[in-house]
Structure formats: structure tokens, C-alpha cells
Write a structure and sequence with these properties.
Layout lengths: L3 H28 L6 H21 L5 H29 L8 H19 L1 H4 L3 E9 L2 E8 L1 H27 L2 H25 L10 H19 L6 H10 L3 E6 L4 E4 L1 H7 L11 H4 L15 E8 L2 E13 L5 E10 L1 H23 L3 E6 L6 E4 L3 H5 L3 H4 L16 H14 L3 E8 L5 E10 L4 E8 L1 H39 L4 H26 L5 E3 H15 L6 E7 L3 E3 H22 L6 E10 L2 E8 L16 H12 L3 E5 L4 E8 L4
């Protein structure tokens, strides 16, 4: 049998101990007030401490007034406990959004009414009545009968405790792994106040001692254990669940046997409900991906893989890390799956664009560059085609590692290039210049450069080889100059012919006049050659049909006494250079003149035939008439006739052979090679 003193000391000390522990747990929770739910659980523990200390004083109250005062205070605190408990559970399970003002008012409505009813109980006795005090081993035990509101409040108390507990149990059922333990700790802690309440209601409490403070004390031990060792508020399971499911990456947790223990919503959306089942092998997720190459799925640390299922193409980045226990044992793995399809698509587009750009750079007939706006034109980017242009590699110029670009510009052009570029930069316009560069083998090339300074004060532009263009341009200039020379030579020859014509008017000597006339015809034949060159598109060649016709027409017009002589021209469409055409024209002049003057005495009618054709590698030039014929005793090489001597000399100049046929008139045939020029 327990002595009076020992029971009194045990119960009172136990209540004091419970009060202190509850206050400490409350303080610990308030210390972490920035975490969801900690303020509510701290308030709950503080209310439990008030409940315990009120009961401590109640057991020592021997008079009705003191006992009633402490009983009312104790009951007021008890009325708040279920409301605070329900608010804590709502916060801890992630339902804080439901705690709007009307809901909070509804939760605390019954406790407030109960406090009012309690303070006026001496009027209506609806809470309790027939209060008596009995002494038990030095303790004063209050006994009373519950009224209508007292029973209603007990129902309310049980409903709120049950509601909070069921909410916790529901989250416990849905949670996994580490967070399942958190809910288990809270559920076990909540179980002991229930036991204390049931013991009190069934009057099974020894010595009629209220078990409520001790039930709350044991609950606080579990809560404190969870706070210290399992960090049950860091973060809340619902917060973790929300973060876990709202992550843009797929997260999969597996155990040591590579079985799925947890999986977030993103992973389910990524792989599908049919394979995202807890307890299933991780390998089921990898079946669409033909990338493991015989590896164990658990050995994958980082890999990018491609999948095409039901027409859907996906690229997935897979990373994993080991999960270890506190003692370092391998307990599972964390897999992170990231959909990188868009990234891969962009990378492929960038790759395609790079290939396309490289193809353009390769086929553009210019060197593309970007350089600094400095005296050396330090290259930041330079197309590889610079090597084809200058013989130097592009890397030689990049950042002036080997040589600055300015070093290959011709010294005479550097100042021009510098001033031209600077002028364009100052005006913020494109520049377009031509200058010379010295290649690696010492040769000189002409280049064109076009560019413009960009907002970063860098020059972007192109360089292209214009050496051939410059050569053509120079040739065109020479052609124009040569045409002008031919024009001037023709004019000068015409002036000479005109001067001779003036001299002829003052002569009375027919022989001398004839000599001057022959000289005029020769000058005219040369003048026609230069005239044809001046008029032609190709300064180097004379069209023979036009040339022959113009000379023959001129001679017929000159020797009008031979109006009955017809000239027949059969000349192939052949072009000759001036070095060949001039002697041919002089030969034609001498032969036609000879026929017109000597072949047809007494103004006899006749025909002159002119032929020019190409035969293999030679030309065949013929002039014939049907006149009286050249006497047999006349040899052009030995003749005193200037005209025949010229025919012989001009044939030699052409490196040709002269043949004279004297039957039925006279026929001059000259053969000469095509390549004499």
C-alpha cells in the first residue's frame, strides 16, 4: 500500500516534471517558428504545460473556491487543445490554405462558448454540478457530475482529436520512406492523449488521478524525439511532397535492389503510369531506351539517351547518385531524369546552321573576317580561305599570334587603307577599297575589301582576290589606248595621203604623179588596216572579208578608167592580226593595182578574182585576172618594177611562197603559215 506522503510526492513531482518538459518542448518548437506548423505544436505543448500546472495546484486545493478556480482554468485549457491540434494537423499536412477566417472562427467557436458556459456554470449548472472534494493520501480529488454541455464538449473534443488523427493517418498512408516515419511519430504521440482520455472517461484511472497531463507529456516526448532526431518540421512532408512533385525534373528513388520506392509526378508524365509503379524494377523505365549496352541499370551515372515510342521522340538526360545511411551503407539511388528534347532540337539546329554556315563560307568566293579597329587590324576571326589567297594560315593572324594582318599589306598602300577605313568608320558607312598584299612566296596580289564597323567597334567584312580583275581592267585600258593609237595612225596616214594628193595637183609629170598615186594606195591600204582595228571589238584581229572589200572598192574607185573591170571576192571569214593583215593588204593593193593598170589595155572589160582561204595550217591567198597576162620574161625578184619587188618582199615577210600562173591572164598565189605572228 502506497503511503500518503509517497503518493503525494510522486504525483506532484510527476506533474511538475511534465510541466517543465512540456515548456522545454514548446520552447524548442518556438525556436523553429519559421517552419510551417511549429508555432501550433509549440502552443499545444504550452497549453499542455498549463493543463499540468493547473492540475498540480488543483490537487493541493482543500477548499471549494480554490479547487473550483483551478478546475475552471484547467477545463478552459482542455477546451483549446483539440482546436489547436486540428490547426496543427491542417498546417502539417499542407492544408493551410483552408484555414481562412471563417474556418478558424468555426474551430474556436465551441471552445469560446464552453468558456462562457464555464464562467456562468454557477447559474445554469449545464457544465457540471454537485462538486465535492475528497482527500486521498494528502491529495484533494474533485468529484463532480457532468451536465448537458459537459457531455457535448466531450463529444466535440473526441471529434476534433479524431479528425486530426485521421488526417495524419491519411498522409501516413500516402507517404513513403523517410517521411512515413515522421507521420508515424506524430500518430504514436497522438495515441497517448487518446488513451488518457479513455481511461478518464471509463474511470479506470488509479486513485482518480487525471491521466490527461501524463498523456500529453508522453506525446511531447515523441514530438521532441521527432524534432531532434528526424527533423520532422524540416521540411514538412507535404511541403517536400509539393516540391518533389512540382520539380521540372523526373525524380525516382530506388532501393538497394533497384526497385522503385518513390517517384514524382514529372517522372510519371515522362514515362507513363504503366511503368511508374512503386516496387517495380527500375529497368522497366529504361526499356524504351536502347542505350545501356549491356550495363546494369543501377550502374548508370550520367547518360543521354533517345527514345521513340508510339511516334513520340524524346531525348532524356539521366543522372544518378548514391543514397547512404548514417553509417555509410548503400541504401539506394536517386535518379534524375530531365527531358532535353528541346535542348537537343536546338543543338541539332545549331549544328545544322553551323554546317550551313561553313558550307556558305566554303563556297563564298571571299575571305570573311572580323578584326579589331587598331593599327594592326588584329584578327578575331578569319576564314581559312585566307591561306589560298596569301599562303598564310588563318591562325597566323588570329590575335596576331604570328603576324598582324597589316604586315602583308603593300607598304605603298598602307596609308591609303588606313585613311579609307577610318573615313568610313567616322561616317558610319561601308567602305569598299582595293589594295595590294604580299603573299608568303613574295608575289603581289590585288585584293578588294568591303566592311563596316559594328557596335562593338569591331570591323566585319570580306576580302576577295581581284588580281585577274585588275589585269583585265589594265588590258581593257591598254585596248582603249591601242585603239586610240590605231585611230591616230590612221589619221596620220590619211594626212600623208592628203599631202601627197596636194603635191600631185602641182605636178605636170605624169610618171611622177603615177608614182605618188601608187604610194597613196599603199598608204591607204595600211590606213584601212588601222581603221578596221579601231572599229573592231577585238583590237588584235582584222576581219579579212571586210578588209579585202574595202581595199578593192577603194582601188576601183581610184582607177575609174577601168569601170568595165569587175572584182569578184571569195574570202573566208578569217580574222588576222595586224602584223599579218598589213602585208596581206599591201600585197592585195599591188596585185589589184597591177591588174587594173596593165592587164586591160584600151579599157577592155574584164574580171579580177580575189580569194583567201584556210587550208590546214596555212592560208592560201590568190589574186587573178583574165587580162593580157604577165610577160614570161618578168621575174618579180629581179624586176625593176617597185610593185613586183614589193610583192616579192612582202611574201618573204609572211614567210610564204609565191607562184605566178601566166596562162589566160595572171594569177598570183601565195601560201603562208598561220603561226607567223
Amino acid at each position: 500500500m502506497i503511503s500518503e506522503i509517497s503518493l503525494q510526492l510522486f504525483v506532484l513531482n510527476a506533474l511538475l516534471f511534465c510541466t517543465v518538459i512540456l515548456i522545454l518542448v514548446s520552447a524548442l518548437c518556438f525556436k523553429n517558428h519559421n517552419k510551417q506548423g511549429t508555432n501550433s505544436i509549440a502552443t499545444l505543448m504550452l497549453a499542455g504545460a498549463a493543463y499540468s500546472i493547473a492540475y498540480f495546484f488543483e490537487l493541493q486545493s482543500s477548499d471549494v473556491f480554490s479547487a473550483t478556480m483551478w478546475l475552471n482554468f484547467q477545463l478552459s485549457v482542455i477546451y483549446l487543445l483539440p482546436a489547436i491540434w486540428l490547426i496543427f494537423v491542417l498546417q502539417y499536412t499542407g492544408k493551410s490554405n483552408s484555414l481562412k477566417a471563417p474556418v478558424v472562427i468555426a474551430i474556436f467557436l465551441v471552445p469560446v462558448i464552453s468558456m462562457v458556459m464555464l464562467s456562468t456554470n454557477h447559474i445554469h449548472y449545464m457544465f457540471y454540478y454537485d462538486l465535492t472534494i475528497k482527500s486521498l493520501n494528502g491529495l484533494y480529488i474533485i468529484d463532480f457530475q457532468r451536465g448537458t454541455w459537459g457531455y457535448f464538449h466531450i463529444i466535440y473534443l473526441n471529434l476534433f482529436l479524431l479528425a486530426g488523427t485521421l488526417l495524419l493517418f491519411n498522409e501516413y498512408r500516402k507517404s513513403t520512406g523517410y517521411y512515413k516515419k515522421n507521420y508515424m511519430i506524430l500518430l504514436v504521440g497522438a495515441f497517448f492523449p487518446w488513451i488518457a482520455l479513455i481511461i478518464n472517461l471509463l474511470n479506470k484511472n488509479p486513485y482518480s488521478i487525471d491521466m490527461g497531463p501524463f498523456g500529453i507529456f508522453i506525446a511531447s516526448m515523441f514530438f521532441g524525439y521527432g524534432i531532434f532526431y528526424y527533423k520532422i518540421f524540416d521540411p514538412l512532408p507535404v511541403v517536400r511532397s509539393q516540391i518533389f512533385n512540382e520539380m521540372t525534373d523526373g525524380i525516382v528513388l530506388v532501393d538497394g535492389q533497384n526497385r522503385i520506392t518513390d517517384i514524382n509526378r514529372t517522372a510519371v508524365d515522362l514515362f507513363g503510369n504503366e511503368v511508374c509503379i512503386k516496387g517495380q524494377p527500375l529497368g522497366n523505365l529504361f526499356k524504351p531506351f536502347q542505350i545501356l549496352n549491356g550495363k546494369n541499370v543501377g550502374d548508370v551515372e550520367h547518360i543521354e539517351c533517345f527514345s521513340e515510342t508510339e511516334g513520340h521522340k524524346k531525348w532524356i538526360d539521366i543522372r544518378s547518385s548514391c543514397i547512404k545511411s548514417k553509417n555509410g551503407e548503400h541504401t539506394g539511388k536517386l535518379f534524375i531524369f530531365r527531358d532535353i528534347t528541346e535542348k537537343k532540337t536546338i543543338e541539332q539546329k545549331l549544328h545544322d546552321n553551323e554546317l550551313w554556315l561553313r558550307l556558305i563560307l566554303k563556297n563564298v568566293p571571299a575571305v570573311i573576317f572580323r578584326c579589331c579597329n587598331d593599327p594592326d587590324w588584329t584578327m578575331e576571326f578569319l576564314d581559312d580561305k585566307i591561306e589560298e589567297l596569301t599562303g598564310y594560315r588563318s591562325v597566323d593572324f588570329i590575335n596576331s599570334t604570328t603576324r598582324p594582318y597589316s604586315s602583308i599589306i603593300h607598304p605603298d598602300d598602307k596609308e591609303f587603307v588606313k585613311q579609307s577605313i577610318q573615313k568610313a568608320i567616322d561616317a558610319n558607312i561601308f567602305y569598299d577599297i582595293e589594295y595590294r598584299v604580299i603573299t608568303s612566296d613574295g608575289s603581289i596580289k590585288w585584293v578588294g575589301e568591303r566592311g563596316k564597323v559594328n557596335p562593338k567597334n569591331m570591323i566585319d567584312g570580306t576580302i576577295f582576290d581581284i588580281t585577274d580583275k585588275v589585269k583585265v581592267r589594265n588590258v581593257q585600258k591598254n585596248e582603249i589606248l591601242l585603239k586610240e593609237i590605231h585611230h591616230r595612225v590612221k589619221n596620220n596616214l590619211q594626212v600623208i595621203s592628203s599631202l601627197i594628193n596636194l603635191e600631185k595637183r602641182n605636178l605636170n609629170d605624169e610618171l611622177l604623179e603615177a608614182v605618188l598615186t601608187r604610194s597613196q594606195t599603199r598608204i591607204r591600204s595600211m590606213s584601212i588596216a588601222h581603221e578596221k582595228l579601231y572599229e573592231a571589238d577585238d583590237y588584235a584581229n582584222i576581219n579579212m572579208p571586210d578588209y579585202v572589200k574595202q581595199i578593192s572598192d577603194y582601188l576601183i574607185q581610184l582607177y575609174k578608167q577601168n569601170e568595165n573591170v569587175m572584182v569578184h571576192v571569195n574570202v573566208e571569214n578569217v580574222n588576222l592580226g595586224i602584223d599579218t593583215a598589213t602585208p596581206v593588204g599591201l600585197l592585195l593593193n599591188e596585185m589589184i593595182t597591177n591588174s587594173l593598170k596593165h592587164a586591160y589595155p584600151s579599157q577592155k572589160s574584164g574580171n579580177i578574182y580575189i580569194g583567201f582561204r584556210s587550208v590546214d595550217d596555212s592560208y592560201v591567198f590568190t589574186v587573178s585576172d583574165d587580162g593580157i597576162g604577165l610577160p614570161e620574161n618578168i621575174d618579180p625578184k629581179k624586176s625593176n618594177s617597185l610593185g613586183l619587188k614589193l610583192i616579192s618582199m612582202l611574201t618573204q615577210q609572211l614567210h610564204g611562197n609565191l607562184h605566178i600562173n601566166r596562162t589566160r591572164g595572171t594569177k598570183f598565189t601565195i601560201n603562208f603559215k598561220k603561226n607567223i605572228e
